[in-house]
Amino acid sequence: MKKIDKLVLDAFIGPFIITFLVVVFILLNINMLRYFDDIIGKGLESLVIAQLFFYFAIFTIPTALPLSVLLSSLISFGNLGEHFELTAIKSAGVSLVRTMQPLFFFVVLLTGLAFYANNNLVPHAALEAYSLLYDIKQKKPAMDLREGAFYTGLNDISIKVNKKLPDGITLKDVIIYDHRKTDGNKEVTIADSGRMFTILNERYLKFELYNGYHYTEGNSDERELTGQKKRNSETLSRSKFSKTQVVFDMSSFDLDRTDKKWFQGNRIMRNISQLQHDIDSIQREIYAQRLSHYQYRPAYFNFYYKQDSLVLPPEIEAYRQHQDSILNAPYAPAVEPTPDNNTSYPTPDKDSTSVKKFEKDSTKQSVTRRPKSRAQKTKRTPPSNPIIRKRKQEIETKAPDVAEAVRNRPASVKVLTDSAMNALVDSLYNQQPPRDFLSQTTNMVRQVKSQLDNNNTSVADQEKELIIYTIQWHKIFASSFACLAMFLIGAPLGAIIKRGGLGVPFLVSILFFIIYYILTMQGEKLAKQNTISEITGVWLADIILFVAGLFFLRQARVDARLFEADFYRVVLDKVKRWAKQRKQRGAWQA
After folding, report:
1. Which of 160, 426, 541, 571 could be disulfide-bonded to 520 (CB atoms 3.0-4.6 Å)?
2. What is the per-residue DSSP string for 418-479?
3. pTM (two decimals)
């Protein structure tokens, strides 16, 4: 059996390595073609380009591994079937499942490696790749002086060259505008010829100009000092030179690296633990916003429903209790220990029994009260505030006078009865509200509606973000499990097809990979639209392919001829025979 296992492993590992490298190369080219225009013409070093390609190659591992497993398993078992090696193994009494066993354990190991790569290598590679790509996009193109056109790549400098010799250094008819003072074209240099080259490790650009003029415009400072009347505040100076040197800074052409902390919040750059932390944070934010709806409800309704009791949903109530620091705070002892009452605090090094006993005793001391006597119950303590005490005395002093005035009121004074008072109150309610009151109420309703709409929009945005991060969390597992599903499809199909090489296996693998890709994209789309759950949307493709793999494995065990024309002719003849018998049975019954 060890020889058979070695034979199967040798037949699988070689095609797997080759197909993995080929698939990574193809996917890498597809990804890099999208950023081709951003890379070309920037004068990048070969090391920077190699780093960018390396990071994007690692980024393609989640897609390359399942496809390479599918293609290599099809090729390996197709070759074994084409050379009748599977037939010899079956004739020796070894089943197809036992033949696939060593490859199954190898693919399980690949699944573990794929999970490690998806969880650790891919997020880091995505962070490095996209941060480097962003810096490349921000970098200025390499300096390229063209004949007869102004070059403005240098900061605040415009250069025009009418003729550039083939050596790339000698120039003819050079014009340089210096705008570094941000006051217009007031410094111009013109030369008949010159030479251009870089110095100090390409940090500076140096021009050696010959036979030219330097023009400068400025304010008439001399006229102001002498007190002369200014008719024209601008002056023009011209200096002739036979040779001069001009140096410009080229630091703006360097590749400046941005801090990676500005990119690491993206979901594709997070691992399992970081995604779980983000999901919990977003969920808490949603609970906090929903809780604010219920807490601000009395402010929304100033009259109606203000005193109504409202039961919070279970998850919001749990969040409120979790956030309530008063409910979670430990209870302090009610009686402070004094030197007289021999009460001692438990130290941290004592056992928990003494701590519980201390808390129990403290609770008893705080709850126990000395019974009051009847005199103490009837006796009331006067208020300590002198203002309140004085007001109370005034009320008690004036109470008899008020009662006497009510008894001695004139007969002409009428006292409203309860029914009359209720009728008066009803008339007040039946009056039409004034226009100002209606306008104020309408504005308040609009304000409350706008507040609720904004809160609902914020919660909806947070829920969409939660769905996206949850999908990414499941994708790390689902893309790893796809290796097993692809193996269960590729190995039985290779045994059924019995064709090796890159012809039929390549076409079949591409077909199933397209199915896998479409199901994955459609599932994620439906999950983002909240039509189906995140688990169903992410795992839909893996589940369907896994079930299809089990079906193909069953067909391969019974030597089904799914890809032969005779198989479908036999099936068609059976269908025709069944239809003919049914028709004859119906005519006989009629």
Report:
1. 541
2. HHHHHHHHHHHHHSPPPHHHHHHHHHHHHHHHHHHHHHHHHHHHHHHHHHHHHHHHHHHHHH
3. 0.65
